[in-house]
Amino acid sequence: MNVVLEAKNVSKIYSTKGKGNEYKALDNVSFTVKEGEFVGIMGPSGAGKTTLLNMISTIDSPTSGEIYIDGNNIVKMKEDKLALFRRNKLGFIFQDYNLLDSLTVAENIALPLALAKVNAKEIDNRVKKIAATFGIERILNHYPYQISGGQKQRCAASRAIITNPTLIFGDEPTGALDSKSATDLLESLTQLNEKARATILLVTHDAFAASYCRRVLFIKDGRIFKELYKEERSRKQFFSSILAILSDIGGGVSDVI
Amino acid sequence: MTLFNLAIRNVKRNFKNYFLYFASMIFSIVMYYTFVSLKYNSQIEKAADASTKISGGFSVSSVLLILFVALFMIYSNGFFTRKRKKEVGLYSLLGLRKKQIGKMLFYENLCMGLISLMIGILIGALLSKAFLSLLLVLMGLDLHVTFEIPVRAVLQTFAVFFLIILYTSFQGYRLIYRFKLIELFSAEKEGEGVPKGSWLMAAVAILFIATGYTMALFFMKIATKGLGLLPLAFAILFFTVTGTYMLFHFFTVAMLKRAKKKKRSFYKGMNIFSTSQLLYRIKGNATSLATISVLSAVTLCAVGFSATVYISTFQTADQMRPFSYSYVKKDKHLDEKVNAALNREKANHPVTNDVALKTVFVKGEVSGVRYVSNIRYMIDEGFHLMPESEFHSYMKQIGKSENVHLKPGEVFAVDGSYDDNLSGFDDSYVHKSVQLNIGKSSMRMKIKGAGAYYLSDFGEFVLVVPDHVYDRVKQTGKERVVRNITVKNERDSEALSNNLAKAVKNSEQYSDYYHLFSEGLQSSGLMIFIGVFLGLVFLLATGSIIYFKQMMEAAADKPQYDILQKVGVTNQEKKRAIRKQMAVVFTAPLILGVLHTLFALKALEKMMPVSVAIPIFICVPVYILIYFGYYEMTVRSYYKEVS
Ligand SMILES: Nc1ncnc2c1ncn2[C@@H]1O[C@H](COP(=O)(O)OP(=O)(O)OP(=O)(O)O)[C@@H](O)[C@H]1O
Ligand SMILES: [Mg+2]
Hints:
- The complex is a heterodimer.
- The termini of chain A are far apart.
- Chain A has a single domain, classed as Rossmann fold, CATH 3.40.50.300.
- Chain A is of the alpha/beta class.
- In chain A, helix 3 (105-115) packs across helix 4 (120-134) and helix 3 (105-115) packs parallel to helix 5.
- In chain A, 39% of the residues lie in helices and 26% in strands.
- Chain A is globular.
- Chain B is α+β, with helices and mostly antiparallel strands.
- Chain B has 3 domains: 1-190, no CATH class; 193-323 and 512-537 and 551-643, no CATH class; 351-487, no CATH class.
- Chain B has 20 helices and 9 strands.
- Chain B has helices at 3-13, 15-39, 42-47, 54-93, 98-139, 151-178, 181-185, 199-217, 219-227, 229-261, 263-266, 271-320, 332-344, 375-380, 388-397, 467-476, 494-504, 513-567, 571-607, 613-642; strands at 325-328, 351-366, 382-387, 410-414, 433-438, 441-451, 462-465, 479-487, 510-512.
- A 6-stranded mixed barrel of chain B has the order 2-3-7-4-6-5.
- The radius of gyration of chain B is 32 Å and the shape is elongated.
- Mean pLDDT of chain B is 84; it is low at 187-191.
- The chains are: A alpha/beta, B alpha+beta.
- The A-B interface holds A 59, 79-80, 83-88, 90, 92, 94, 98-104, 107, 110-115, 117-121, 123-124, 143, 159 and B 194, 263-264, 266-273, 276-277, 279-281, 560, 563-573.
């Protein structure tokens, strides 16, 4: 199988302007993701998960290191090219939803399709279909300030996958969901992964969500701490193995409860 | 850390905000000072004729300027404090007492105000000489001016702005008391939300504006048939201004909502965002946009009106005084005196035409007509008669022609103020009969037609009569001979004109081009100066208001643009979307303002015998150009702010 994503010695240093305070959020991280993989990323709060996701999803650029997507070095790409790349290839479910205040739920979900100049009828149909999958048909004409956190998250997820992207990143996509909605979302993602062969990277604190993945990377203090494959285990078994590692790292479990 | 240190650090950190606020305060002060310093300038007062009330013209407009400048400063202050709500909330959170924070803001604003007051007056003083020279050129005064700082102007500026600054400082003091902490932190989110549009109200708005426009178009007709000038003017103002506000509140919303329903264009690239964004912001924008639209109209009207009057000064003088000099001939002695005076100025003002107009005056009236617009007729209640043959040869001499073939019993009116289109006030006397009292008998004749010519500088009402009638009249009345002289460069013939006036005025009827022209130029020059000055201030201020408003929104919308970036919107697409949004925000009030202006000036055209075409073709493009500059600047800053 082809390598879709390759991170080579990626580091990220946050420095507060002028003050000289430096913080190393990512420290020489390297890994590869193959086409059609479903990868989980776990780790305690502040470990650098969001930072890592931002790097590999082209939203932010690393201080050093290289990142290849489909063989292209995205660190060297120009901003406008990156934007088009994001629009056409990636779907991103953000930790803080990132919905546009001035757009209704339907419009928010339709945005990527509109940008891709898909025709209006088709947009309407696809929005309706995906809204039904996530049970948000009733709030399609609401504005983000009128809906709950979980609904926002479902809206964000709908927006991320409506274009059938080949690469999906989720930053705690189930963080604000009840177990039913969370399972629905995870099932949808699994479907996309299995049927449409979408490659998925999921950041999560939740061992249940992680158990849907086929491989889990554990991050601590900006480094990859451990890597766990599901292999032939059932989801339940995988779930317990994940829990075991989490308690090893510490911090992770207490975040969930 | 002392309060003072804290305040200094504030200034450093928010330099851009402070700079904008400073700049708008200084701008207001410079403009006001410049204006009043002209009002109190001693040299210009001396140079202008006593009849032109310089300070009078300035007084009314300076009140207008105060009002406007005060509003503008309060607005910029509001903009500035809004930007700082969060910071103030932070101090409060850090445990500073409310009173301390209030005091800090008060002193900070007061200091900034006083500093800009000093800088403003200084810049104003430097600028005032340039403005003074411009004013003198426009008024046609040839005067060498020296630098002057009128004490009264400084005092007045100081007093006015000290009060305004005190007020804004007090607003700053109250900021912390006015809001709850939570409100201070969410300063930028307040007051938006998607409004309800209403086609009904939109229709009412359009109806209002249409009513105002119709009234303007038929201004004279309505005014003379009942309503009266002033009530009608107010009615027009009411309908258009109310209509404008309603239009922006309801029509724009309805339009945007409609645009959203048109899925095919709405779902096309960034339209989905721009349209929604406009709709989302319209509630907070509608009032400002309407205000800007009205202000644009006021500005353009003021400039257009004063420019019209200025241009018409030249036209009217050329028209009403076709000759440089006209005087009634008396004896050889008087003619010699005149010739001598003309000879002395032969080098600069050679005589180019010298014709004699012979008429006989008779009493008489037009039956069935209360009055005609010709003032001389109203004073004399009679006509100057001239024979048809003489009329033709005279017209040839002054380079004009008019086909008059009188049948027996017919006369032809030559009346400079005749106008077949205008006639709002007076009934036309053409085709009516006229009664002429010749000696003891009287005769009735029919007015065949009228021509709008001034035959001399006296502007008299002349009747052309058949030659045989004139021969009869000549036996009963004395023939008067008017000598009409044209010289070169009459517009700057001050010395010659004064000399001739002195030579003739006391003994005989006399009139000249120069005095009418220079007096007209002085008052209309002053007027256009004030008009353009106020126009410029208004324009700069309205431009700044839109700019401020948009920058405020840019700051609030930055997260939205970050999201767009993350979703994969290119910078180019963002730029284009911003351009589109700003284009709507800028052009909507501009188009409406220009429309208002066109109709207002059309109404003016109905009232005065002037053409507003030239002012419109100059003022509107210039206005649009400057306005466009603001648009470009705003787009650029907006983009910079959100990326
Ligand atoms: N823009 C930034 N500037 C400075 N420091 C930052 C910035 N973003 C993140 N950090 C720091 O980098 C570290 C990693 O942050 P990151 O958001 O990646 O954590 P995370 O693993 O996603 O945590 P969580 O599970 O709570 O979302 C944190 O210590 C955070 O304080
Ligand atoms: Mg995170």
